[in-house]
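Observation: inputs received (chain + iron/sulfur cluster).
Thought: call the complex predictor directly.
Action: predict_structure
Action Input:
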Amino acid sequence: MNAPVTPDVLTLPRKLPDNGRVNIVGLTRDQLREALVAAGTPEKQAKMRVGQVWQWVYHWGVRDFARMSNLAKDYRALLAERFEIVLPEIVTRQISADGTRKYLVRIAGGHEVETVYIPEEGRGTLCVSSQVGCTLTCSFCHTGTQKLVRNLTAGEIVGQLMLARDDLGEWPVPGAPKDETRLVSNIVLMGMGEPLYNFDAVRDAMKVCMDNEGLSLSRRRITLSTSGVVPEIARTAEEIGCQLAVSFHATTDEVRNVLVPINKRWNIATLLDALRDYPRLSNSERITFEYVMLAGVNDSDADAHRLVKLIEGIPAKINLIPFNEWPGAPYKRSSNNRIHAFADIIYHAGYASPIRTPRGEDIMAACGQLKSATERGRKSRAEIAAEAAG
Ligand code: SAH
Ligand code: SF4
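Observation:
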C-alpha cells in the first residue's frame, strides 16, 4: 500500500443561503421548460430557451447567466433573479499515489458524500454516490455501517460529474480543437447508497448526463450497480437503459442472506429472473456480476462452479473484487492464489472474469470503503458483527 496523501483542501465559495431561486442543475428538459415558463418566458420561445440555457450549463459549463451571450440582456437579468446554477461543494480532495481522486462533497443540510475519480489509460471513470449512507446493511460494506441520512437530489447527482469536470479542467474552450479523449468518459453508480432506492432522482440525473447537447455521455458508458432491488430492475431498463451491474457476491441464499441481506426479500432465483430480461428490455450488453472475494466465506471452487451454473444463459461478465478492508470489518480478503483459482474456473466456463484492481486504497477510495466520517448515527462494531453473523 502506498503512503497516505494529505488532503489538499480546496477553498470554493460556500453555497449561498436559501434565496428562493430555482437551481437549474439537475432539472430535466421538461422541468426546465416548466420553470422558465413559470418565470415569464413566453410559451412559444420556451423550447428554444431551454436549448440555449442547456448548452451553456451542460456543454460549456457556464455558471453565470451574464455570460450567456446569445440571450438578450434583460432575459439574462430575469434568469439571474429567478434561477441559480449551483453545484455541491468540494470540501476536500485527496489524490492517491495512483492518481485516483477522492472528493468529499458537501450537499445541502451539511451532509457529506464521496465521489471518486479513477483515471485509466485513455479513459476515466467517475464513481458517483446516490444516497448519504444506505438503508441496506451489506455486512462487508463500509457504507452499510452508516444509517441512511437522505437521498441525493438529481442536481446533487449530476453535480458530482460537473464538479469533477471543474476540478479536472474539463470543459470545452470555445474555438479549441475538439478533444476526443475524455477525462471523465464513464460513470459508475457505485459510490455510497443504493441507486434503485432513489430511482427518480437517479433516472433524471442520468437523463441529464446522457443528453447529447450537454454532458453527452452515452448510456453504454453509464453503469448502475444494484444490490438487487428486483422490482426496479425492469424500470431501469425501460426508463434509463444504462448498463447494469449487480452485487451478487454469493452462490447460495444462505450466504447471500448474510452478505447482502436484501436477499431475504428477493432471493437469488427471483433476482436472476429479473436479470434474464434486462438485456432485451434495455437493449444493452452484458450484465456485470460483481463478486467480492471474502476469505473462507464465498471463495471456494464449489462457489465458482455454482456461480457459472446459476448465471447460465445470461449474457454476463463477472467482476471479481478483492475485498477492501476497512477499520472494524468482519472479513478478510481472499488470497491472490484463491482469487486466481476462482477466476480460472469462471474463465474456463467461457466468461470474462476480470479481477478489479483496487484503486485509491491509500486514501480509502476503493470500492466499499466510502463513508462520510462526519455523519452521526453510525452503527457500532457490535451491530456490524451481529449483522455479519446473520
Ligand atoms: N449499493 C450499490 C452500489 C454501491 S456499492 C450496490 O450494492 O451494488 C458498489 C460495489 O462495491 C458493490 O458491488 C458492492 O458490493 C461493492 N463493495 C462494497 N463494499 C466493498 C468492500 N469493502 N470491498 C470490495 N467491494 C465492496
Ligand atoms: Fe448499500 Fe451497496 Fe453498501 Fe450494500 S453494498 S450497504 S447496498 S452501498
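Thought: report the result.
Final Answer: The first strand starts at residue 22 and ends at 23. The pocket of iron/sulfur cluster (ligand 2) is lined by residues 134, 136-138, 141, 143-144, 193-194, 227, 247 (CB under 6 Å).
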